[in-house]
Amino acid sequence: MRIKRDIFRILHDLEGPIVYALTVTCVVVSLLVYGMTKLRSPGALFDDWRSVFGTGFGIVILLVMLGLLAINQRWLAVAGVFGVFGFNLMLGLGSGREEAMMLDEFIVTGNTLALLLLSACYYQGMLDS
To answer: What is the largest distance, in Å, between two alpha-carbon atoms of the chain?
Structure first.
């Protein structure tokens, strides 16, 4: 029981740095990988990069983010993540683009926006307990 409590305490103490690291990872992937792909091809992601930075990457980042927030009982932040994904869906549907937003784009863009929001909240001290 003591080990479980120690693990939760460590995760609580490292919550901010983990969110910052996830934010940097998502921003780099969004800007460099997806941006480079958009400049060079009509698709959302190069086929040979899809296995590394595709839907699986986005889902893993999302699950780590939601798991970390749930462990630390940040329910308002979890609701904010879902709100950001809803906003991202509205942007994707209302953008007037001819082609639909691909799942890869949706997940990585949603993760990046949600993590930027969470990072700003940590920086401002809104999630301190």
So the answer is: 56
What's the CA gap between 72 and 92, in Å, rounded?
31
| pLDDT, tens digit, 9 for 90 and up, residues 74-110 | 888 899 899 998 888 888 777 776 666 677 778 878 8
Collapsing DSSP states into helix, strand and coil, what is residue 54?
coil
Distances (CA, A) of 116 to 8, 59, 95, 96, 122: 24, 17, 21, 25, 10
In the numeric block, the tokens 């899809």 are attached to: 50
Read off the pLDDT of residues 111-128 as tens digits, 9 standing for 90 and up.
888 888 888 888 888 876
Q: Decide if 105 contacts 53 (C-beta within 8 A).
A: no
- Distance between CA atoms of residues 13 and 10, nearest Å: 5
* Token pair in block for residue 86: 């809803």
